[in-house]
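Complex 280.
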Amino acid sequence: MSLTLRNITYTYPLETEPVIKDLSVEIESGKVYGLIGNNESGKTTLCNIMRGFIPSIYQGDIQGEVIINGQAIEAYEAGELASVVGYSFQNPFTQMSGVKETVYEEIAYGMENLGVPRQQMIQKVAELIQLFKLTDLQNKHPFELSGGQKQRVALASIVALDPEIMILDEPTSQLDPQSTEEIFEIVQLLKKQGKTIILVEHKVDLLAEYCDAILLLEGGKLALAGTVKEVLTNPEVLKLGGQLPQVTQFFLKAVAENKVKIDRLPLTLTEAYGLLQEVD
Ligand SMILES: Nc1ncnc2c1ncn2[C@@H]1O[C@H](COP(=O)(O)OP(=O)(O)O)[C@@H](O)[C@H]1O
Ligand SMILES: [Mg+2]
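Predicted structure with adenosine-5'-diphosphate bound:
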């Protein structure tokens, strides 16, 4: 499913300065987008616009259009929209329903609300518990979990609803490197199922490996947008509050110091290795 933003400008209630400024972007179906930018650049706000929470829950002044699969976002009913666009909160503590007493029930909660048949629900929860490696935690109370565990449960609850578009706001912020990599592998799996994914994430090395495209926000503006290759090898990223993958940054420095002559920057170690063989 595609998602289009046209000339979005948004100002929070009681504020005078817009936090999103004339932003237009086309999110193509079936692709994974990394959304980057420094703190307060507007990433979470943009997520809330893309899932319709602005202006339905948080008011303020919004100009422009949000179009999901050819239909204006306002034309969707709230329930319908929630089944099309899934969202995982930046803060996983917010995500837990607060009404369920086990991880197992927490994952089933959204499906229950959507009226998914019981047998199907049981099967889906079992699959997700396996996929997200939650077997040992399934009988625990959601509030007993660590931040990282909550993040995994939160993501499983979203995946359970099977939305076509998934917006994941810093889903790995509390996770160790191993669990982070596992989340990225799940993202890849979701992509294979044809999902459209928008991933707010600071870990650019992993974005370089797993995304199709990168959007960089700076001060509420879409400062850069393009393929992973275009954006994450562009040194401008550093001036705009973003980061480059470690390998890219290393070669950028080496080129600046005339230590190596290459005509393009690598994104990954594998690419760097290939480039160096060409040089020899
Ligand atoms: N509820 C709110 N009311 C007023 N201003 C807000 C609100 N939420 C966020 N902001 C402001 O909007 C800007 C963008 O914030 P946010 O979207 O959270 O950025 P990011 O996710 O990139 O850190 C910041 O200046 C922040 O202070
Ligand atoms: Mg944020």
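Residues 3-233 form a domain with the Rossmann fold fold (CATH 3.40.50.300).
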